[in-house]
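Q: I'm a student working through a structural biology exercise. My instructor gave each of us a protein and asked us to get a predicted structure, then write a short paragraph describing it. Mine is D-inositol-3-phosphate glycosyltransferase. I'm not confident about reading structure output yet, so if you can add a plain explanation after the tokens, that would really help. Here is the sequence I was given:
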Amino acid sequence: MVHTSPLDQAGTGDAGGMNIYVCESANQMAAQGIKVDIFTRRANNDHPDIVDLGNGVRVIHLNVGPVDGVTKEQLPKLIPELSQAFKIALTSGDKYDVIHSHYWISGKVAMPVADDLNIPLVHTMHTMARVKNLSLAEGETPEPMIRVQGEAQVVAAADALIANTDAEAASLVSLYEACPDNVSVVSPGVNLSMFTVGSGKAASRKNLDFPADALLITFVGRIQPHKGPEILIRSIAEMVSHSPALRPKLQTLIVGGASGANGSEVDRMKELVQWLGISDVVHFAPPVGREGLADYYRASDLVCVPSYSESFGLVALEAQACGTPVVASAVGGLRTAVADGISGVLVDGHDPRAWSSVLARLLQEPQRRVLLSMGAIEHASHFGWDATSRGTLDIYDQVLTARATQKKNIS
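A: Happy to help. First, here is the predicted structure for D-inositol-3-phosphate glycosyltransferase. I'll explain a few features afterward.
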């Protein structure tokens, strides 16, 4: 994963669910005796070239391009140089059995190396340009053609493709002409020892200094149009207009930082809150570390995920594991991450009035929230990272067996 580091704080810059996915699945594989090296481009000088995370997992930095100031959009120019550095790294030490790339830029870096060294290539997209471009937020810039073409090339070159959900697998086949036999579905997971009900909502609110009787709605993620924070903000403005009785206790928390190079989006959201006259209701908090995040989920009455598309939606699973119902867009992987009517509510479209109606109804029905909370805990319990790693290792076995058979037939 070259465009973001597993050592970065999720929820800011380009660091998000993929960082968590890679680290958690690597740790689970290591627990089963597999050595895992995670290669990433150096984007700061805070760490040595090799960071040993323990248990057989290492993060290895590729020193390519300027350390600072390279945006994700500028990375494609560095792909040839990154491939060369990656190949040198792979041939100067341990022997690797499988290369697993995450996101299209890493796939493009890995493709020629896997081919030259005759190592099977497994790829996970996480998000896809053609899927995103079918559901853009208002004013959002479409993903560029270089990404669309790059993804198509990675799909054609990979020995196996891992999709997060059946819907994503279908998109790989229909939008990228992937061979169905090469596509497997392995759902991401949630850290079930970290994200728990714990000591409950009251204790978490006390820890975070929230009023015990507040009606708390929380958004967690990078502040970018595609994640939909504006939808939530506008729906809150609608809510205080049509249900003014909720306002005295209503609190909405936006937890996250600017996405990529777009630092102005946080300021734009704050200005929108002020313009809508809801500064007393909507508040912003910087990105929170993994362990601290569980308290925010537990303290909340509802967690909102109003994204325009999601390959899965780890925030939704984490919140549910903490016993908090989720209100999410009925798109992509969120249809799997949230059990509609059981662990939360899926909302069609992105009309703030529709979102406002759903949120207000849930806030006014505490008994229904209790039932959804119970369903949320049960639903999340089926998505441990150990299952993700086992499914991934099964795919590694399949590609290695196929290569061995192919080699035997040729000889």
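A: Here are two points you could use in your paragraph. The domain at 201-379 is CATH 3.40.50.2000 (Rossmann fold). The first helix runs from residue 17 to 31. It's a good idea to check both against the output above yourself.
Q: Great, thank you!
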